[in-house]
Amino acid sequence: MNSLLSRLVSEFHRRFGNQPRLFRAPGRVNLIGEHTDYNGGFVFPAAIDLATYVAIAPRADRRLHAESLSFPETLDTPIDQWRQPAGNWTDYVLGVATLLDIQTGADLLIATEVPIGGGLSSSAALEVATALALGAGNRPRAEIARLCQRAENEFTGMQCGIMDPFTSCLGEEGRALLIDCRDLTYRAVSIPPGIRLVIANTMVKHELAASAYNDRRAACESAASRLGVAYLRDIDYSSLAGTELRCARHVISENARVLQFEQALLAGDLHQAGEQMYTSHESLRTDFEVSCEELDTMVAIARTLPGVYGARMTGGGFGGCTINLAAADSVDAATGELRSRYAAATGIDPHIFVCRPAAGASEMTA
Ligand code: GLA
After folding, report:
1. Which residue, 335, 287, 255, is CA-closest to 44?
2. Which one of 127, 160, 281, 295 would you pick to mutate in the ligand 1 pocket, going by the greatest count of ligand atoms within 8 A of its CB?
3. Which CATH number fits domain 3-189: 2.60.40.420, 1.10.260.40, 3.30.230.10, 3.50.50.60?
4. For the whole prediction, is pTM greater than 0.90?
């Protein structure tokens, strides 16, 4: 058991006086296919070996009580009269518990390795781990993912798509998932053994990230409905202009890039796969307008590094992380360069993680 988990269990004993069950749900990194999920398109994420853990034990009264090792706020509410969202991390737990309509009280204690607000789905990992802890484990995984997405949409106001909870639920060790978000069919694609996923956290999260995300989503949906299609994925954008044109051009070209990236990966052509990532970043920067200076700097540095095949922003944007596809034997040199050159350019020390694709959420043996 790693040290965070031992701390979680001993803190649970100290705070609640009994032995918990333990559940884990991973964060995710998206290799390519950004802002396509809510447009009915393709995404290509992998669950990663950084996870959120929920320790849980039943309570005799009908109350739900949740605490976190990372935040001071607590949730304490009768399950027959749910409290309103509070505008902090407890809303994810509240949302999942409410939608599951739980019938027994419980104490929860939460710990996480997923950087919070870093674009690696700390929120989906919390929702999915909570859903399993609260007894959803025997439901189909895609249904759990939908419930978690709904919890986030309805209880935090973030109109996120299905990618993050789906990946946290269904991730596979050593593989990324190519998901068609229109019908949630997917295939698991092996990441070549000589490749490493290097995640570079810019350490910035720009204000308005959530509202800008919701604005993009609303613009895509209104363009689709004006054109009489269910999803922007399906349109011919030649008749559009302005923001609608740029949004549609991003979504449609990004969908094509996901499939080309998969083909290149399967053919072992990592340079071609990497080019798709750089082009994706450009499209997100110029057409979809969800990048920022720090992300652009991190990608520009990656582009000059030997052994880095490709790089791009990952997740919703406006800060957070980049994903770099790197040769295993270049990783140490590449992470050193990313760190020192980003720090020199911005004055910020980035956090860099070398991750591997991990399995989806599960109960753990204590
Ligand atoms: C966030 C959302 C996802 C997805 C990405 C952008 O991570 O939660 O649903 O839309 O942004 O690809």
Report:
1. 255
2. 160
3. 3.30.230.10
4. yes
